[in-house]
Amino acid sequence: MTTFDANGITLERVREHVWEIPQEGDMRVPARVLASEALLEEIKEDKSLEQITNTTHLPGITNHAICMPDTHQGYGFPVGGVGALDAEDGCISPGAVGYDINCGVRMMRTNLTYDEIQGREEELVDSLFANIPSGLGGGGIVEPGIDAVDEILARGVDWALENGHAVEEDLRHCEDEGMREGADPEKVSQKAKDRGKNQIGSLGSGNHFLEVQRVTDVFDAGVGEAYGLEEDQIVVLIHCGSRGLGHQTCNDYLRKIEQQHKGLLDQLPDKELAAAPAGSQLAEDYYGAMNAAINFAWVNRQLIMHRTRRVFERVFDRSWESMDMHLLYDVAHNIAKKETHTVGEDGEERELYVHRKGATRAFPAGHPEVPKAYRDVGQPVIIPGSMGAGSYVLRGGENSMDLTFGSTAHGAGRLMSRTQAKNEYWGGDVQQDLEDQQAIYVKAQSGATIAEEAPGVYKDVDEVVRVSDELGIGDKVARTFPVCNIKG
What are the start and end residues of every segment in region (Disordered) (predicted)? Predict the structure, then answer.
């Protein structure tokens, strides 16, 4: 048996790119890591493997706790982690969703070509930066009263449609059509609503961005055509989440769990895995609040996308419709959803809370929850790289339901902390190098943000995608490359 020693944790090779940490002690199931040996060498350098092992202690965890190829250390539960917990006898964990509830990505197509953008990159990046709110704190595209926040929490992108920030087609190309059923605004605290009400339609800071990209490669012509992608085409990628509202909601429920379910908390090896037992009032309350925050994040990305259409109209003096600026897809990568999966040797169907933290749903062709427009080819999966590397569009692979509860990676995955990044990089140098060497124009609120997100702080996205593709959990469709990027 081939093994891999990761600083005291031994992984056993199951097959190519599939490694297992065997069940022992109080572990309820084994843990699995989906990675090449090159990625494992990087993953072992932080606490990801310890965290995924701890995750196997959660009640009701089913089959395996799983690390995606882009895994890195997170808050309790690793980023790039998937954990499916029984919805009747298990639990739901805010830490396994993350603070930025429904952090996710959306890609918008255009019919512009790279030739039409060249020479106007600085004008475009300046205009986007001036019109898309970014950075820490308040300031959004709209500043509705608290009643509007409740409507957004309950209705998601349907609210944006009614208020002129969307078109019908946008809803049909968003995960769950941009609205989670079961969202309960009353379960979101007033403090969370107050934090969110002035941030509706804003990027925030950290690794969130808006990036204009060009399609450099189409690997699967048939699926590329179904997604409306072709080489040399300009697309726009938006990455952000639920801002202060989501962060406050996660924090509120972590504190409530500490007070109301201390017995369960004491059984776990890491307090940051705090979970509410399935069927408890607190589990139901958190699920309602989390679904409401998911709706908030979808509206956030929708408003940014619609404002981007207006910016392109001014820069290129054409209507957004004439530039064919339509949503390809929007998909969450910090979320927990009740889903029914076939598990165990007897093929039992069970309802599970599938937690995807820094992991993307990747349902294959034919799955009824894939939007009708893509059901014949599989769900689009969007994998952002760093500012200096390509991003990818994948489709849900045919092995995803068996291996990962229908999931794959969500990005390149960090190699170093933000603090370490700021010690090793100077934002101004990174910005100038990207422009001089790769013709990538970056504008940010601060140089520190650029340093934190320097290309060198991330894993090799090509390797992450190669592993996903070879495992059949997310198949390569197209690759894109940055043209200009704005961030908080």
Answer: 174-200
Non-local (6+) Cβ contacts of 177 within 8 A are 157, 171, 371
| Buried/exposed code over 14-34 (b: 16+ C-beta within 10 A; e: otherwise) | eeebbbebeeeeebebbbbbb
Distinct helix (H) and strand (E) counts, the chain:
17, 20
Q: What CA–CA distance (Å, rounded) separates 38 from 432?
A: 30
CB 178 within 8 A of CB 157: yes
Give me the residue spans of the domains in the chain: 3-147+158-181+198-241+297-415+458-487
Phi, psi of 394 (to 5 degrees): -115, 175
Q: Are 22 and 52 in contact (CB under 8 A)?
A: no
Task: Give the DSSP letter string of 89-145.
Answer: TSEE-GGGT-SSTT-EEEEEEEEEEHHHHTT-HHHHHHHHHHHS--SSSS--S----
State the residue for tokens 């309602």: 288
Asked about 247 being catalytic, the answer comes back as no
DSSP 8-class letter at 239: E
State the average pLDDT for the chain: 95
Reported as a pLDDT band with limits 50, 70 and 90, residue 206 is confident
144 falls in which pLDDT band (50, 70, 90)? low
Tens digit of each residue's pLDDT (9 = 90 or more) over 416-447: 888 999 999 999 999 999 999 999 999 998 89
**Binding residue ranges for Mn(2+):** 100, 208, 239, 333
Question: How many other CB atoms are there within 10 angstroms of residue 41's CB atom?
Answer: 12
Judged by DSSP in three states, 161 sits in helix
Q: What integer is the mean pLDDT of 79-96?
A: 97
CA 399 to CA 404: how far, in whole Å? 8
Residue with tokens 């060497």: 437
**Binding site listing:** 100, 207-211, 239, 333-334, 384-387, 391, 410-413, 487
CATH no. of 3-147+158-181+198-241+297-415+458-487 = 3.90.1860.10
Model confidence pLDDT, tens digit, residues 402-415: 999 999 999 998 88
Hey, what are 68's tokens? 């995606």
Annotated catalytic residue: which of 57, 64, 261, 410? 410
